[in-house]
């Protein structure tokens, strides 16, 4: 009876065990650990101390470190704590290069590389997506190991749109124009409505005469162009801003305080400006926007203004 039981159940079990033992393959090669260190940034700023960095192979965590100083994980020092990455036997079973990814506080880092043993410096960065995402948790993504390349975003023709500041005021009026076009234009052509133009993206322009100005912007990129025209976009009031008699340039406000001291517009404050002021005091009062030459702010052009200008030379 015992023998029959042996033959019926135990003997096949022993045979299966022996088969399993002798048929299992030799242990696969496990590469030595890699040790990583370097800089780490989040959205372009140094990652704060306490940031968790995880090394991911085949969707599994194979190493982890928490930073102790801002913007840096591990270091090259001999005894420093580094991010130790230890692939498993299964990771190396395919005999293919081992793909290594990183998570920074649970969010995928910008860098992906092949694993290598030994000490290695790798600068890591991570950018949160523009759309608000749920609080990142330090769980492992279940992405397949081979990352599929994201398709290139297709470029669209730009849609022109403009802004500016200020859009009204007395002459001379300095307006800072801003390009707020959609679809990433690469070239710009502004027309300020007074016969002047600019190819800067965000130009500043000085209006010298009262009026309502139509501002246009043409934009280009590799996919096409866009155009917008804004009638009456800039409204300039007050007295026209003029060049001084015999001067070929507009006066200038050298320090941006709203008072114009470079009367001949040669880029500096000098005795010629004082002489020009002295010779044209009546003319200024009658022709120019008075306030910008009224240095003492008493409401008229007087000798005290002249002395103030003289003192500054
Ligand atoms: Ca000034
Ligand atoms: Ca001058
Ligand atoms: Ca005055």
Q: Can you walk through the features of this model?
A:
The protein has 313 residues and is α+β, with helices and mostly antiparallel strands. It has three domains: 34-126, Immunoglobulin-like (Sandwich), CATH 2.60.40; 162-237, Immunoglobulins (Immunoglobulin-like), CATH 2.60.40; 243-313, no CATH class. 15% of the residues lie in helices and 32% in strands. The protein contains four helices and 18 strands. It has helices at 2-23, 271-279, 281-287, 303-312; strands at 34-42, 45-46, 52-57, 60-66, 72-73, 83-85, 99-104, 107-114, 118-121, 124-126, 162-165, 168-170, 173-179, 187-191, 197-198, 204-207, 211-221, 224-237. Strands 1, 2, 5, 6, 9 and 10 form a six-stranded mixed beta sheet that branches. It has a five-stranded mixed beta sheet with strand order 12-18-17-14-15, with no helix packed on it. The chain has a four-stranded antiparallel beta sheet with strand order 4-3-7-8, with no helix packed on it. Strand 1 (34-42) and strand 2 (45-46) form a beta hairpin. Helix 2 (271-279) runs antiparallel to helix 4 (303-312). The N and C termini lie far apart (125 Å). 25% of the residues are buried.
